[in-house]
Hints:
By secondary structure, the protein is mostly beta strands. It is built from no helices and 14 strands.
Amino acid sequence: MISNFVIFDGDGEIKNTILTTFEVAEINAEKDGLMFFKVAEGVHGSTHRIIDGNCVEKVRFDLITSSLVITANGVDEAIISGIPEGVQVRWPDGQTDIVTDGEIRFSVDLAGTYTFRFTAVPYLDQEVVIEAIPAT
């Protein structure tokens, strides 16, 4: 019989999923700060987490974007709001910040496509893509 196990950290974030025919203890086991927990098939770290010994689905938060297309003039801006406090945003240049006031603002003077990635342990990861078009 194949069993599905997850390895997760102290925050409940699933780090890896293991399918095995070996029988591992039915209870949680801990090693080096990581826990092992038997779960149902289809559980994955991108969609689930472990809370108080239970496997639960991550929730989606509603992002509000003022505009998905801006003019690349350094003045026109897109505002992404509805971001829960503590969510990490990865900017298109790779920089990461923790959102503390519920929104981020973005303007640019170089035309292109810019992807913002939002991550936090209790939430589903989300992306917003902003297109900056040349100024005319």
